[in-house]
Amino acid sequence: MKKIIATALMTTALTTSAFAGGHQIAEFRIGLLGGENAQDRLASNECFRAYTEEALGVPTRLFTAADYNGVIQGLIGGTLDMAWLGASAYAAVYVEDPDAVEPILVKTNLDGSFTYHSIGFARADSGITSLDDMKDKVFAFGDPNSTSGYLIPLVEIPAEGYPMEPGEFFSDVVFVGGHEQTIVAVANGDVAAGVTWADGLGDWEDGYNSGALRRASDAGLVDMNDLVEIWKSKPIPEGPIVLRTALPDDVKATMVELTANLHTVDEACAYGVAAGETAGFTPIGHDAYETIIAVRRSQMN
Prior knowledge:
This protein is α/β, with parallel strands linked by helices. It is 37% helix and 20% strand. It has helices at residues 2-9, 38-56, 68-77, 87-96, 147-159, 179-187, 212-218, 249-265, 267-273, 290-300, and strands spanning 28-32, 60-64, 82-84, 101-108, 115-123, 138-141, 172-175, 193-198, 227-232, 236-237, 240-244, 280-283. The strands form two sheets. It has a six-stranded mixed beta sheet, with helices on both faces. Strand 1, helix 2 and strand 2 (60-64) form a beta-alpha-beta unit. It is globular. The chain starts with a helix and ends with a helix.
């Protein structure tokens, strides 16, 4: 059955021997950004790994980095071939090496958009309902290379009148490692509030349609009724799925076709890969991220 599905996913006429027999690549390596524990990341993407291995005819491995920078450096150094990056992580790769990767596809929401939001949240029983209530309290962020988990809040929250320097409004601003860690830290009362990502569509009680809150809710890590939204960013362009530029063209073509057709052929697999409900994966190019790249560069100065 797996072979039948993988064959359906490939709309090109390439055969396995074109890869393994031609020695174009010896293996294929997919990087998974941090944000949830490694076991859950591997489980959510195992189906995609298996489809890739079947389609390319070479061993395919999933790489779970401890943080975003592990995947960023893996792509720049050529030890990873593919990853779904946040917009800021893509900007980090591009700023360091514009030729390292190329964006190919983007996760599309059920309404056809490909944006999401940085979501500020707190415990529902904390009495915190907005950023005004966060004075002299600890605010948690995931990873300095995360778009929604740091870069966008770093720009938008001070613009709304809440300085991000520890002690100026918030008692402290801390990094806890990723989206899942942020959600757990808030739910456990270790910090007063945190930020994570969600598409902002659907119901809060479900963790929205997709994103870190939906994944945490599905995993039983949190009851969304125990949390309350206290801040929401402007729409952010969804990060791209990227391929290493130096890959053979036929390998890239196969991976574009496989990923683009994933939602149609195996909706459950696409749900796991996309962290929730999705309409599938559609083409995207570098131009969509020029604003994020400019913001990233401005924060480096």
